[in-house]
Design goal:
Elements (H helix, E strand, L loop, with lengths): L25 H12 L2 H6 L25 H6 L8 H15 L4 H8 L5 H15 L1 H16 L7 H11 L11 H17 L17 H7 L15
Helix pairs in contact: 1-4, 1-5, 1-6, 6-7
Pfam family, one: BrxA
Organism: Bifidobacterium jacchi
Protein name: DUF1819 family protein
Length: 233
């Protein structure tokens, strides 16, 4: 469904709450991004438009459900090297959903062999935050704010407090079973560690040092800068 792809606004709608496994999925994101850039339809759809304004440039428009073009091929070829087809299908679907929130320009950069692992992790964190509004809001309203205030420790209680506040407007958060709620929290903290935002040893918030290329790509969507603990966003 089209509504299952692209960035989530988080306004007057139920949160997407399917981030229960996988963490950041940066290596998997790079594999599927590479498949996308080799797809002829993707290349045609995201070719830079001559003289286009930046907002209308196909390279800067998020992919949305167009990522589905490679789903079947990725599963059939076991592109992510997962033991069972059912598990492969679930993982491919999860990664493609996150990639759907990136633009053609961002996908091409993610797939480029010259892109550093740090930049790949940064883009996959952006993808996760855009696709899951709850994560993006936590990153901006809790992680970044604590960093700017000099409060560098991040605890599970900080997350739980954030969820309780959001539940006032999002009853779906109160409907989660304890087991699912714990999985969501654990997977988010895992992703933050993998994205180099959090020290795994003591949950200290780490400042983000984004490359000039990543900063330039995110310049068209400055709200994405808020996903990182940094002072120049």
């Amino acid at each position: 469904m089209a509504g299952s792809y692209g960035a989530e606004t988080g306004r007057n709608e139920r949160y997407r709450l399917s981030f229960t496994v996988g963490g950041l999925l940066a290596p998997q994101g790079r594999v599927l991004a590479s498949m996308l850039v080799r797809d002829a339809a993707f290349v045609a759809d995201t070719a830079p438009a001559a003289g286009a304004e930046s907002a209308a440039d196909p390279m800067r428009v998020e992919l949305g459900e167009r990522v589905l073009r490679i789903r079947r091929r990725a599963i059939d070829s076991n592109a992510l090297s997962i033991r069972t087809q059912s598990a492969s299908a679930r993982m491919v679907s999860e990664v493609l959903k996150r990639l759907s929130a990136l633009s053609g320009e961002e996908i091409r950069f993610l797939a480029d062999e010259g892109t550093t692992a740090n930049d790949c992790r940064a883009l996959m964190w952006v993808a996760m935050c855009r696709y899951y509004a709850l994560i993006g809001q936590f990153a901006a309203e809790v992680v970044r704010d604590r960093y700017l205030m000099g409060l560098l420790s991040l605890t599970r209680e900080d997350y739980d407090r954030f969820i309780r506040a959001k539940a006032m407007w999002h009853p779906e958060l109160e409907e989660l079973t304890p087991a699912t709620a714990n999985k969501l929290r654990a997977n988010l903290f895992k992703a933050m560690v993998e994205a180099d935002l959090l020290d795994a040893r003591d949950n200290t918030i780490l400042p983000s040092l984004l490359s000039g290329t990543v900063l330039s790509m995110l310049d068209g969507r400055p709200d994405s800068m808020l996903f990182f603990p940094m002072r120049n966003a």
